[in-house]
Amino acid sequence: MGMVFAAVAVVGMAGYLGLFVALHLLPTGYHPVRHAVSDYGVGRYAGLFRWALVASSLGILALAAGLAVEPGTPTVTVLQLVFLFLIPVTRVGMLKYPTDLEGQRLTTSGRLHYVFAVAAFAFTYSAVAGITPELRTLGAWASVGDFLGVLRIVALVSLVLLVIALVPRLRRVFGLFERGFLLSTNLWFLTVAICLVRQLA
């Protein structure tokens, strides 16, 4: 069962990253530096954005399950698993309540989207920061321990910078730092999932 979860996690995270790249290559009309990633959820390619979030959410759920149920895999704390399981919950809220585009009047849907997005970022970084020390010296993860550590640092720096970029004068670069956070954390999830497959093979 653990191998099934691990394989689903790899497929889900790889699928998300593939769709993420596709959204940046398609003529969406959004700029990767100025616009938030959630803006893709409004407009012509909203369906692709939703599929990306679904793929990532399923991947994270499967990864959490794989780390939780398989004997012989690294032990992660209950709190860390809770963080992982809560990420997809926040994604449901993000999908149910689309964001408001920059310059539009802030709606109830937009406000709720921001709340769920903030929660998703907080849970994501908490999981990455908490689990990295547990994995980087163990089994299949030891060979990529330094890489996981670098991704955690990139995620932290990106998170700090995107919070700073909420200042009105810096909003033009918010999208850049948000993408740095999303890429680093989802690469972290994909790497951990691939190593879980290796560990169980």
Automatic annotation (TrEMBL):
Signal sequence, renumbered to the chain: none
InterPro entries for the chain: DUF998
Keyword line: Membrane, Transmembrane, Transmembrane helix
Transmembrane segments: 6-27, 48-69, 75-94, 114-132, 147-168, 180-200
Taxonomic superkingdom: Bacteria
Keyword Transmembrane in annotation: yes
Keyword Glycoprotein: no
Protein name per its UniProtKB record: DUF998 domain-containing protein
